[in-house]
Amino acid sequence: PESKLKAFAEAGIPVADTIDEIVELVKKALG
Questions:
Q1: Which own/partner contact pairs does 21-30 have at CB distance under 8 Å and 24+ positions apart?
Q2: Which run of H or E residues covers position 18?
Q3: Is the dihedral of CA 12, 10, 31, 21 positive or negative?
Q4: Among residues 4, 16, 1, 3, which one has the least CA distance to residue 25?
Q5: What Å distances lie between residue 23 and 7, 26, 30, CA to CA?
Q6: What string of pLDDT tens digits covers the 31 residues of the chain?
Q7: What dihedral do alpha carbons 5, 31, 18, 12 form, nearest 10°?
Q8: What DSSP state is assigned to residue 12?
């Protein structure tokens, strides 16, 4: 999961401040 978040961040998706925000970003990114 961390590697995916890294990939998202490198792709220009802002890194969230909280775990919950990160989860929401991942859900949106995965559709």
A1: 26/1
A2: none
A3: negative
A4: 16
A5: 14, 5, 11
A6: 678 777 777 776 666 567 788 788 889 999 8
A7: 50
A8: T
Q: Would you say the C-alpha torsion 17, 19, 21, 27 has a positive or negative sign?
A: positive
pTM (2 decimals)? 0.41
Which two three-digit tokens encode residue 4?
């995916």
Residue 6 tokens, joined? 């890294």
Of residues 3, 14, 10, the one with CA closest to residue 22: 14
In angstroms, the CA 25 to CA 29 distance is: 6
